[in-house]
Design goal:
212 residues; mainly alpha; 2 domains; 3-stranded mixed beta sheet
Length: 212
């Protein structure tokens, strides 16, 4: 679109359109500036996307929605930003909570399951929910610890509703006697390209409290 040859071709045949002509050289300078401007414009547009932005560009988004970074890495900060935007639109219902978490973790809502605790057969509790299915792999990839993830959930629910239980189960399991091989559930290799993962463990001494 901005190539010099394409620009020169739009001139009438009165002009010399050979590559070494003065008009071609002049349009080459003009073309280079247009290409550089287009590249910069595209980069600015990309940085307005939370998934593409990095560093200060993410901080600017956080300033706009009043979500400080704290000690969060870019990966964790993206989750905070997405959850803050989604929480601003939340009505506190279970379906909305699922949508908020799905948006924050960039996963389909079907990967998140929440149950109310008022009818729990083992530990019933009014005005409380439990999360019994979550994409732990996404949380691990971002480096977000379970404590802060629970805080995101708690900020999403309606006032007075307690987040009672959160089960971050892994995929690791031992095989059956039939010795069926599943590379996503067994022991991993040194490279880490195969193998399951254990459920999340709380480690208060290393958990960083984020400004949620």
């Amino acid at each position: 679109m901005f190539e010099a040859k394409a620009i020169v071709s739009r001139f009438v045949d009165y002009f010399n359109k050979e590559p070494n002509s003065n008009i071609s050289k002049l349009m080459k300078i003009f073309s280079d500036e247009l290409i550089a401007l287009n590249t910069t414009t595209k980069r600015v547009g990309d940085w307005r996307d939370i998934d593409s932005a990095k560093g200060v560009a993410l901080d600017d988004t956080g300033t706009n929605i009043n979500q400080p970074r704290g000690v969060a890495t870019d990966e964790v900060y993206r989750i905070l930003l997405k959850s803050k935007i989604a929480r601003n639109l939340s009505d506190g219902s279970i379906n909305t909570i699922i949508q908020v978490l799905a948006t924050a973790l960039s996963v389909p809502p079907t990967q998140i399951r929440i149950e109310e605790k008022w009818n729990d057969s083992l530990d019933p509790e009014p005005a409380a929910i439990k999360l019994i299915e979550l994409p732990l792999a996404k949380i691990n990839e971002a480096g977000l610890d379970p404590v802060n993830f629970v805080r995101i959930v708690q900020k999403t629910v309606a006032a007075g509703v307690k987040v009672g239980i959160i089960e971050l189960t892994g995929t690791f399991e031992f095989g059956t006697t039939a010795m069926i091989v599943d590379n996503l559930k067994g022991f991993g290799n040194i490279e880490g390209t195969i193998g399951g993962y254990f459920g999340a463990a709380f480690s208060p001494s290393t958990d960083q409290e984020l400004p949620i």
